[in-house]
Amino acid sequence: MSTPSKPVIGILGGSGLYQIDGLKDVTWKKVSSPFGEPSDELCFGTLEGHQVVFLPRHGRGHRVSPSDINYRANIDVLKRSGVTDLLSLSAVGSLREDLPPGTFVVTDQFIDRTFAREKSFFTTGMVAHVSMAKPVCSRLGDALVAACEGLGVTVKRGGTYLVMEGPQFSTLAESRMYRSWGCDVIGMTNMPEAKLAREAEICYATVAMVTDFDCWHPDHDAVTVDQVVSVLLGNAGKARGLVKNVVPLLGAHQGPCAKGCQNALDHALITSPEARDSALLEKLSAVAGRVLRK
Ligand SMILES: CSC[C@H]1O[C@H](OP(=O)(O)O)[C@H](O)[C@@H]1O
Ligand SMILES: Nc1ncnc2[nH]cnc12
C-alpha cells in the first residue's frame, strides 16, 4: 500500500506580506513556468514540521501591479512545487459598516469584475470548464476561522469579495453599486487567482484583511495607499500569527480533500483527444497532468 502524501501548504502573501516569519530551513528558489514569469522566486521552508511554499503575489518590494501579475504562472509554479492547499492573504476595503478596519473576513464567494487578465489555463486546443459555484474550499475556510479564533482576531465567516481591475480605487458610484449588490469587501487580486487554483485542482481559501472603508462611508475619507499601509502594519502581525496557527491544522490533514477541489477536472474536459493541441498539453503537464496522462 502506498503512503498517502502529506499536504504542502502554499501561501500567497498580499500587500504588506512579502515574507513569512518563523519558517525553518528557508530557501528562495526560482521555479520556471511555461506560462511565463511568476511574481518572484518561491520561498520553501517548514513550519512546525510542515512543508510551506510562500510567494509574495506582488513580488518582494511590491513591484507588480494587480493587472500585471501573471496569475497563471504563479499558480503553475505552486502546483509544480507540490502545493495542495493554498491560502491567500489579502488586503481589502470594507463595503459594510460592521466590518471595520482590522476585521478579518474568510470569504466564501467572489464577483469577478476584472477584464485585463488571462483567466484560464485551458485555451484553444484544450478546453475545460470547471465549476466555480463554490470557489472556496470550506475545509481551508474552517481552518482559517479556527486559527483566527485561536488568536482572538475578530473574524467573519463568509462574505463576498468583489474583485475590481484597478489599479485605481473605485469611484463613489461603483462603491455604492457594489454595496447594493450585497458585496462585503473589495480588492484587486483574488480573481483570476481562485479560478486558476480550481483549474489546477488546488484547494484555495482567502483571509481578507480589512484596511479601509473604500470611499462610500460618509464619516471616513476615501481610501489612500497610506491608510492601507498603516492598517496593514497592524494586520500583518496578526496575519503572521494566523499562518503560525493555521499551518499545523492543515498539515495534520490526511488523504485527499473530501470537498472535491482536488478532482475539479474530473468532468471538465471537453476537447476530444484527437483535437487536442500537443504544445498546449505539454504546458498543462503540471496543472492537469493527473487527468491528461490517463
Ligand atoms: C495597497 S492597496 C491595493 C492593493 O492591496 C490589495 O492587494 P492584495 O490583495 O495583494 O493584498 C489589493 O487587492 C490591491 O492590489
Ligand atoms: N478599497 C480598496 N479597494 C480595492 N483594493 C483594496 N485593497 C485594500 N483596500 C482596497
Question: Could you characterize what this model shows?
Answer:
The two termini are 21 Å apart. The chain has one domain (9-292): Rossmann fold. The mean pLDDT is 95. With 294 residues, the chain is of the alpha/beta class. The radius of gyration is 19 Å and the shape is globular. Strands 1, 2, 3, 4, 5, 6, 7, 8, 9, 10 and 11 form an eleven-stranded mixed beta sheet that branches. It has helices spanning 71-80, 138-151, 172-180, 190-199, 225-251, 278-283, 285-292; strands spanning 9-13, 24-29, 42-47, 50-56, 85-94, 104-106, 109-112, 155-157, 160-163, 185-187, 203-212. Helix 2 (138-151) packs across helix 5 (225-251). The structure holds the ligand CSC[C@H]1O[C@H](OP(=O)(O)O)[C@H](O)[C@@H]1O and adenine (ADE). Ligand LNRAV4D5 is lined by residues 14-15, 57-58, 66, 90-91, 187-189, 225, 228.
Order of helices and strands: EEEEHEEEHEEHEHEHHH
**Percentage beta strand:** 15-25%
Structural class: alpha/beta
Query: N-to-C terminal Cα separation, in Å?
Result: 21 Å
Identify the CATH homologous superfamily: Nucleoside phosphorylase domain
The ligands found in this model are: the ligand CSC[C@H]1O[C@H](OP(=O)(O)O)[C@H](O)[C@@H]1O, adenine
Secondary structure: helix percent:
25-40%
Low-pLDDT segments: none
CATH topology: Rossmann fold
- DSSP strand count: 11
